Amino acid sequence: MRPNLKGEPTELKTVFLDNGTPFADDFQDYVKVVYAKEFETKEGNYNSIAFSIKYKSELADFLRMLTELPCNVVASFHINMTLDEANAAKADFMKDAGKWIKYTKEWQPMLMGQSKYILPGIFDYCFYLWIEESAGQATKYLAKLEADDSTVGIAKSRFQPFDNPRRIEFPKNHAHEYFTKAIEVKLGGK
Fold first, then answer.
1. Which end of the chain is more exposed for a tag (fewer CB within 10 A), N or C?
2. 87: three-class secondary structure by DSSP
3. Is residue 10 part of a domain?
C-alpha cells in the first residue's frame, strides 16, 4: 500500500521502469564494480567476454526478480533498427545500395551485446511502440508484438489476444486498458 495524492493508502498496481536503456547502461557500472576481479586476466588485462557474459546474466536475474513483484511490471527501452545477423554477414551495403537492393530491418532494444535477446523471455509481452503522423489525419498510436515477424510467438508461448500482432492500433494514453480489454474479449468476456 502507498498513499495517493490525498494521503489515502492505495494498492500498488504497476511498477514502470522508465527507461530501461539508460538503466541497463548504469547497470554495466554496477557489474564492473561488484565483479571487477572476475574480469581481470592472469596478465592483468580486461576480459570483455567474461564481462559481457556476467552482465547478461546479472541483468536477466535483476529483471526476473523485478517481474516477480505482485503487480504489473512495465519497462520501456529505446530501440534500434538493425539488420538480422544472417543478412548482415553476407551483404555488401555499398554495392547493394547502387543496385537499389534494400534489406528488411528488425527492431531491437538498445542493450549491450546478447542481453537484448533476453527481454521476450522474461516479460510476458514485449511490444514495440511507434506513432504514425500524416498531414490532416489523426495521429495513430501503434504497437507490434515482440521484435520482428520471425520471432513473434517464438520467445515464449503467450496468449495472443490480437488478430494482427504486427500492427496493433491503440487509443492514446489507454494502451494498458486496451490490452486488458482485448484479453477479456478473447477469453469470452464482455
1. C
2. helix
3. no
The pairing of strands 72-75 and 79-83 is unpaired
pLDDT in tens, 43-58: 989 999 999 999 999 9
- Domain-terminating residue out of 123, 143, 164: 123
Query: Which residue range forms the structural domain that includes residue 154?
Result: 127-190
Is the four-CA dihedral 36, 42, 44, 48 of positive or negative sign?
A: negative
Q: What's the structural domain count of the chain?
A: 2
Q: Does residue 8 lie within any of the structural domains?
A: no
d(CA 23, CA 111): 10
Walk across the sheet containing 127-132 and list its strands: 127-132, 140-145, 168-170
Cβ-contact 50, 39 below 8 angstroms: yes
pLDDT tens by residue, 71-112: 878 888 887 767 666 666 666 666 766 776 666 666 778 888
Indicate if 68 and 153 belong to the same structural domain: no
> What single letter denotes the amino acid at residue 69?
L
- What is the spatial distance between Cα 88 and Cα 70, in angstroms, rounded to a whole number? 41
